[in-house]
Amino acid sequence: MSWPLFLRTLAWQRTRWIIVSIALFGWGVLIPVFYTAFSDVIRDLANSGAFPEELLSFGSGSLFSLPGAVTLGTQHPLAIAMIAVFAVGATSTAIAGERQRGTLEVLLARPVSRTTVYVSMALGLLLVVGTVLVALLAGFVSGAAIQDVLEDLPLEHLPMVFLNGFLMWGAFATFGLAASVTFDRAGPAIGLTLAYVIVNYFLEILGSLWQEAAWTQEYSLFHHFNSTEILGGAVEPVDLLICALAFVIPIVYALLVFPRRDLAAPA
Amino acid sequence: MTDATSSGVISTRGLTKHYGSIPALNSLTLDVRQGEIFGFLGPNGAGKSTMIRTLLGFLHPSAGFATVLGMDIVSSSVEIRRLTGYLPGGIALYDSMTGSQVLDYLARVQGREPHRRQELVDRLQMPEADLRRRVRDYSRGMRQKIGVIQALQHDPELAILDEPTEGLDPLMQQAFYGILADLRAEGRTIFFSSHVLSEVERVCDRVGIIRHGNLMAVHEVRELLGRRRRKVSIQWRGAAPGASTLPGLVDVTVDGDRLFGTLEGDVSEFVRAIASPSLEDLTIEPASLEEAFLEYYADDATERADAHESGAA
Q1: Nearest to B160 by CA among B130, B180, B136
Q2: Can you give the pTM of this predicted structure?
């Protein structure tokens, strides 16, 4: 690993990193507020039969319990958009962006291998993804403490929530990096990674809203990060395994492809 | 580490690079010697950048092999780049960083102290105030100066410079030539790609001429210039003597008391032959590398002219 490159990768994200961490922390604080404010109303609506329960949930999350609310908080488009700033935007432009700007050849004129460049950038960006997830979880805990519902949140299971969440978002991040080493321009890399996230999200939401399409959820990484189950003490090793595989496969691909690519002069 | 077959700082043997079926370098064999400034000449698309990028490991050779500083370009690429300075053609820099930050960052990644930076900054007249400005605010010339400094600041054993004076004003070009001369005097080797013939003629010891990925010739610049044809104009008091008495003069035309021609071969013999009290004026145009260069590309010019004519027809 190249420390200067690793530190530079962090420095490039610095401003966004701070803003998104604060925003995700704030979002995490709001979730227990929503839970305490609307839980009973939503439960009454569900019990009245006026709305099917599926419509009162979102993905695998709901406001029926604090763990369900935490899942809702992690699967909400707002949280996804914020985490995707790094897991999609920063990763897919990391190497393809350098290539497009022409700075990759200035960097590779130094005594660093392409593997080193990849590893340094990947570690930097995964660290950023990990810390924004920590900010989100810290927000949940702080919000629960503020609302005095901390006993509803089994803190001992939070590390596993983090691990599962990190593997899932890390899988999107490593996919973004794999796209980044594949293309000479950032546009296709961003597009492909964004499409990957959207398809995963669509499959999860489709299956949660339409019983006949419930099987589609199995093909979504979002379905394999279920905070409700983990906080209930029911960790699914298969979920972890699937997320871990989706995390590792793009890394192996990138480490095989990037060093073998011909880097012709930038257009 | 050192390959037994290599005899230069850069040695290529049958180095070939194909993009699919399109050849970009065709079995190129070349030796660049320690302590020389080697000019690599060719028009755009001839294969100059492909050669450089292959030497630095950005491209993988399709066939043949090459060594740089005695190390194989494929297996020891990282170590080669530790000892090499590279200035890409039309260098791109990190726009959001200041000039100073760019140089610091690249020096840290290089892992060698930037011993030469201050000297280069002074000689290329890059004041501290400019180094504190963001690169996005730099002119083309300032970017090029930063490019030169980042390539040479760690005092590399070999400098590979792709169109290094692009964007530099004439004053800075002079300063840059001075830096190259000093590097050569210290025994550093410089591989210099350019299509500006006058500067190659001025600073290089030897030139390689590349065309369509083929190395057409490698010559000492002095030797190449010595072989060039020179335009000659002579004026006598009275009638001009017969052209047949003037050694090496061809394509002779006479206009009154003035004789025009093209001199091939030894200048001193020719000057001795025309020396006479009736000689009033003599002009011998300096030999230009451009003519030598164009000679190697004459076919291209003919092909282009033919294509143009057939297109017009």
Answers
A1: B180
A2: 0.84
